UniProtKB/TrEMBL annotation:
Signal peptide (from-to): 1-19
Keywords per UniProt: Glycoprotein, Membrane, Signal, Transmembrane, Transmembrane helix
SMART domains the UniProt entry points to: WSC
PROSITE patterns: WSC
WSC domain location: 33-139
Subcellular location: Membrane
Membrane topology annotation: Single-pass membrane protein
Listed name of the protein: WSC domain-containing protein
Domain of life the protein comes from: Eukaryota
Source organism (scientific name): Neoarthrinium moseri
A GO term from the CC aspect: plasma membrane
Pfam families in the record: WSC
Length: 172
């Protein structure tokens, strides 16, 4: 076998192992406060967004590279951080957490597999992707019986009214 054939075989095996590792990522579903609502695109590069994030107007945290970021850490920030609780929590790019009450109307639902990056703090869990948000929706119990956040529910059905380019979430 030539060195070139060996190189091609090695590259093929590495790409196959990498693809299998990504497919093995789990979606976090152990929260009683938030429910998974799907993978959604980020809006910063979309025409008409003026560079605004899909989850704007709330708080965010960018954890250190290879730091303690997990979905649970992000959900805790969105439930208890400044101005909390937020209706929506989003994990992105393995270590970013976004909390807001509205999702931009420019953000679109993607296949769950598009959120293909692992959390830096737990490599078995999906933590969004490059310009992709793993989105979580506040549940009724997370708001202690207050008005249901609705909109993107556990069945991942979005329903809202567009007001000035922002989706105002409504209960289902």
């Amino acid at each position: 076998m030539s060195w070139f054939s060996s190189l091609l075989l090695t590259l093929f095996i590495v790409s196959l192992v990498s693809a299998q590792a990504r497919a093995a990522l789990r979606i976090y579903d152990a929260s009683s406060t938030y429910r998974y609502a799907g993978c959604w695109n980020e809006t910063t590069g979309i025409a008409g967004s003026s560079g605004a994030r899909a989850l704007a107007g709330g708080i965010s945290q960018d954890f250190p590279l290879n730091g303690p970021m997990t979905v649970e850490t992000c959900l805790d920030l969105c439930a208890h951080g400044q101005g909390a609780p937020y209706r929506l929590a989003g994990v992105e790019y393995s270590r970013q957490c976004w909390c807001a009450n509205r999702l931009s109307s420019l953000s679109a639902r993607l296949p769950d597999a598009a959120c293909d990056l692992p959390c830096d703090g737990d490599r078995t869990l999906a933590c969004g992707g490059s310009l992709k948000l793993g989105l979580y929706n506040l549940t009724e119990s997370g708001k202690n019986g207050a008005v249901r956040a609705g909109g993107v529910g556990s069945a991942a059905v979005a329903m809202g009214v567009v007001v000035a380019g922002v989706v105002m979430m409504v209960g289902l």
